[in-house]
Amino acid sequence: MKAIVLGAAAGGGFPQWNCRCAVCALAWAGDERVKPATQSSLAISTDGAFWLLLNASPDIGAQLRATPALWPRGERESPITAVALTNADIDHIGGLLTLRERQAFSIFAMKQVHAALTMNPMFSVLSAPVRMEVYSGVPFRALEGLECALVAVPGKVALFLEGESPKLASDEGDTAAAFVSDGNKTLAYVPGCASLTDRLIDRLSGADAVLFDGTLFNDDEMIRAGVGEKTGRRMGHLPIAGEGGSLEILSRLPVARKIYIHINNTNPVWIDGSPERREVEAAGVEIAYDGMEIVL
Ligand code: MLT
Ligand code: MN
Ligand code: ZN
């Protein structure tokens, strides 16, 4: 199976349109230590003919144009036949609005995510996508020869559905990990995760590649950068560094390829050679980039 990282960045992309934090400033200046990135999404195929998207980012137009494997084959004939959604955040569903123009495809998601699409009439412009409700941990055939399972992981509802005090790490199905298997190899895609529970660690340990939530390096990074009031944990994202952070757990995971994805613009791991980037790489974890290919 082959996976192409269409976008490696968290919501807003990198650099973010309205941000000149220390990391974005390098990108705006064209500093060679950083590479701009679009919002996170993964394309997967076993045969190169049909492709599954894991999430559809608002940057999907530019992502498709940059990825010849996803170009149309004939008049109104896209090789993308299915999209699986891990949650209903705008950076993961916004791109669906670009996939209208009379092309049918399947949308696989759990109940909560379908509900978020249904409540928003804008998504009714999609020409009859087949909306398939799937259940946590129950495998489904996403493409010929490719089985997928969405597994509920700790997380929270989409930002636009938050009430006064949202549950930050509920595992009721608002956020999922996607496990994709060709019968031989398994790839896990987890762009949002509030906590690495023993059960999740167990399941990830059986994968050949894990792409994991790398939103923030330090939990209070956005506060320290002066660009926000929220911690990573308040946003439903486990930070990379520190006690209980994802890096100490991922570093011990017996998985061949471990890759951070969904990286926020404030995260210093974007900077090649930064101490934070070196710490991640020394622990055996890679940093995703747009166009990265993972062949399993
Ligand atoms: C997140 O990952 O926390 C969301 O993408 C936030 C957002 O929708 O801006
Ligand atoms: Mn996001
Ligand atoms: Zn920034």
TrEMBL record:
InterPro entries: Metallo-B-lactamas, PQQ_synth_PqqB, RibonucZ/Hydroxyglut_hydro
Pathway: Cofactor biosynthesis; pyrroloquinoline quinone biosynthesis
Superkingdom per UniProt: Bacteria
Transport recorded as keyword: yes
Domain Metallo-beta-lactamase: 51-263
Keywords assigned: PQQ biosynthesis, Transport
One Pfam family recorded for the sequence: Lactamase_B_2
Protein family: Belongs to the PqqB family.
Function: May be involved in the transport of PQQ or its precursor to the periplasm.
UniProt-recorded name of the protein: Coenzyme PQQ synthesis protein B
Natural source organism: Flaviflagellibacter deserti
Gene designation: pqqB
